[in-house]
Design a protein that fits this description.
alpha/beta; Rossmann fold; 7-stranded parallel beta sheet; 3-stranded mixed beta sheet; 14 strands; binds nicotinamide-adenine-dinucleotide
Length: 328
């Protein structure tokens, strides 16, 4: 298939591209590099440097490469920033996303896989979360992702664009070539590994008085390759229908303290931590039920062991101590 990956120079997009190329698809990575990295663009993919709002460039990319499906990961995704500056999130995650959908309509591309998020659920009433559970985002990030999901629903009804909205829980880990390099980094595992390698003095735990087994928040970590494989499976349904799927490993999840202990074990280094205040809007527990995608698409995560997930990220970080900075 000929696939355009919007945001393919970012963390998850680079791994999605890697898996698509491995499977023999023709991939065009479309990315403004405003957050991503040129060095993250996988060999074997065509790279187009552009923003979703550069409409003529985007339409030309879809048309000239005879694109049959789009995987859309290009967005802003910092919860705290979204509360401070919602305009930025509505602009990039909704307005620019709609520009992509309109370019797809114009070029008759009728399949899209969209990176959505567990943040669409807000403060969950029960665990594990199922796709039919209520959505009630508690910040503009989750709100804008949900708004785009709703747009997808109506674009399907009116224009026949089929979609798969994948609600990721916590993506983590790396491949040999592609890893996580955000600036600022807000994800727990890379932050812990930066502390383990001396790149930051300590790690802050945001609250240890939650009603969980050790007082710290519980999250559901999914290896980025397992996440990427789900996109490829999801492409298959888009001839005929649309769907929303959760993506996590389920089970008991891991507390922040358990992730810290695992990171110390994997790296063999002491990681200095400090307990700080809770962050507002952080649910105590976020665990996915991924039964729907397992049942309907036969997806099953291959790397569920937290130590294995962290070890892959640690290996990548040791080979790329400055992330992609040296490859720009
Ligand atoms: N990382 C996670 O754990 C996680 C969890 C849930 C959802 N998500 C979603 O998955 C997607 C990818 O996450 P990530 O961690 O790889 O993020 P990332 O920031 O590493 O990648 C996003 C990429 O999109 C590009 N981009 C952003 N806006 C653009 C625009 N208007 N035009 C062109 N390119 C643009 C950036 O340059 C970047 O390369 C995001 O949409 C995010 O909301 C991520």
């Amino acid at each position: 298939m000929k696939i355009l990956v919007a945001g393919g120079a970012g963390y998850i997009g680079s791994v999605v591209t890697e898996e698509l190329v491995k499977d023999g698809h023709n991939v065009v990575v479309y990315d403004s590099l405003y957050k991503g990295h040129r060095g993250a663009v996988v060999r074997g993919a065509t790279f187009i440097h552009g923003d979703l709002l550069e409409r003529a460039k985007l339409s030309a990319a879809l048309r000239e490469h005879n694109i049959e499906a789009v995987i859309h990961l290009a967005a802003d995704s910092l919860v705290g920033e979204s509360v401070q500056n919602p305009a930025k999130y509505y602009h990039n995650n909704v307005f620019a996303g709609l520009a992509l959908l309109d370019a797809m309509r114009e070029c008759k591309v009728r399949r899209i896989v969209f990176s959505s998020t567990a943040a669409t659920y807000g403060e969950p009433e029960k665990q594990p979360l199922e796709e039919r559970d209520p959505t009630a985002p508690t910040n503009p990030y989750g709100e804008t992702k949900l708004a785009f999901e709703r747009a997808l629903h109506w674009y399907e009804e009116a224009y026949g664009i089929h979609y798969a909205a994948l609600r990721y829980f916590n993506a983590a880990g790396a491949t040999t070539h592609c890893g996580e390099h955000h600036n600022p980094e807000t994800h727990l595992i890379p932050i812990l590994l930066q502390a383990a390698s001396g790149q930051r003095p300590q790690v802050e735990i945001y609250g240890d008085d939650y009603p969980t087994r050790d007082g710290t928040c519980v999250r559901d970590y999914i290896h980025v390759v397992d996440l990427a494989r789900a996109h490829i499976l999801a492409l298959d349904i888009l001839n005929a229908r649309s769907a929303i799927y959760n993506l996590g490993c389920g089970g008991e999840g891991y507390t922040v303290k358990e992730v810290i202990a695992a990171a110390q074990h994997v790296t063999g280094r002491e990681i200095p931590v400090r307990v700080g205040a809770r962050r507002s809007g952080d649910p105590a527990v976020l665990i996915a039920s991924s039964d729907k995608i397992k049942r309907e698409l036969g997806w099953s995560p291959q790397k569920q062991d937290l130590h294995e997930i962290i070890a892959s990220a640690w290996q990548w970080m040791q080979q790329h101590p400055h992330g992609y900075a040296d490859e720009k």
